[in-house]
Amino acid sequence: MNIAESPNISDYNSFNQFFTRSLKATARPLAATDIISPVDAQISQIGKINNGSLIQAKGRYFQLDDLLAGQTDMVNLFKQGLFTTLYLAPKDYHRIHMPITGRLKDMVYVPGRLFSVNQRTSRAVPNLFARNERVICLFETELGPMAMILVGALFVGSIDTVWAGTVAPSRLSSIKRWNYSEPVLEKGAEMGRFNMGSTVIILHDAQHVAWLSELKPQQNLNMGEGLAQALR
What we know:
This protein starts with 14 loop residues before the first helix and ends with a strand. The protein is mostly beta strands. The protein is built from five helices and 18 strands. The strands form four sheets. Strands 2, 5, 7, 8, 9, 12, 13, 15 and 17 form a nine-stranded antiparallel beta sheet that branches.
């Protein structure tokens, strides 16, 4: 509570308000790197996308086309790109911020299951992240396209974005895509939130971006810490 914007527990009218509490502006300083972590999380996996294939866990892979729900134009942007899977435990700060300044281009809602997304389930459930309910957000940045996939999970009551409010759960039973030309969200600005532990998968263009070499699976990051740098 000492880093919460409202440190008085009586300021919260529900547990969910407490769970998604905002932090003091000084609690998560932004690193000088070009791209920062959007969340407090553990790195589940980090690396390159090889011919549209991403590693889920040791010996287990899933396909970019499945993750992006067959949105061919998006798949073509990242087929040889970079990805990282960031797992938010229930104890973590649950607001999601922008890794880099970007203009929102598209949002896609994908209905699905709500499997747990912890390490044990990642090792056990095939195509986990391509089966769960999720919200795909595509941004245009100075370092090429960036996608942020907000993956629902067990006990996740909703996924919110700052421009659309609650996107999931939805009454929609099929994939729905929205096109945008605004807003522009600055690096470090809030872009959404989870109501329980879940996962954010980030996709980048490998021609413009490289993950920081010191990052590895099972490493913990706070929102605002360095994640990637521009290739210059």
